[in-house]
Amino acid sequence: MTSAKGSLAWALRVTVPVAMGYLPLGMAFGAYSVSLGFAPYLAPLTALVVFAGSIEFLLVGLVAAGAGLAQIAVTTLLVNARHVFYGFSYPTRLLRSPLAKLYGPYALTDEAYALITSGVRPTTERELMLIQGVSHLYWVLGAAVGAVAGGLIPASWDGFDFALTGLFSLLFVGAITAATQRTRILVAALASIGVGLLLPHDLFLLGAMLCYALLCVLMVKRPRTHRGAPAPESGV
């Protein structure tokens, strides 16, 4: 199989970093989905149709808990709102065919975006679609393997219900370590948790996320200034 740029072998090679994340995380999603009582085929089907990474963990959890459609929709919007900003540097000029124009934005994930904008930098529609398509395949394959493996694990084994909490805890630790305003972020997170605890149990996640999003917007609008230094004037 040729490894020339734009070939399938080339796409498999350049997306190895994506595979290193998608395959094990997809397997965790598949096993987690089965542990909640969903049929094994639903994990790879969800990975194929939804393809939204961390929100899929939330999705199966919310569905299993009987959450309403509005709650699921708002939660998905809050978690994946960052993708709106990816469009500013995503190479939409390469998308020529109607299918590519639909699939390109749909299959735009964090890892694919990083690869496209700062790593491989595709120059043709075929290269772009191969990168995103192969990345999508990794996620579906991981979910399928995890669903099968999860079905073989005895029901007496505990811990899968903590998978989502563990995943987001690790993501939070990584994010807070790299942040420059750790104190303000921690205060906002604790305040949001407090607000969520005041709400009914089924609205905890939605209320806490809305509160945190609002506090983040306020922090951006009123950035911290150095002591004794005036706040920067807004331009016209």
TrEMBL record:
It is found in: Cell membrane. Belongs to the AzlC family. Keywords: Cell membrane, Membrane, Transmembrane, Transmembrane helix, Transport. GO terms for biological process: L-valine transmembrane transport. InterPro entries: Brnchd-chn_aa_trnsp_permease. The chain crosses the membrane at residues 31-51, 58-79, 136-155, 162-179, 185-218. The lineage of its organism: Bacteria, Bacillati, Actinomycetota, Actinomycetes, Micrococcales. This is Branched-chain amino acid ABC transporter permease. Pfam families: AzlC. GO terms for cellular component: plasma membrane. It is a multi-pass membrane protein.
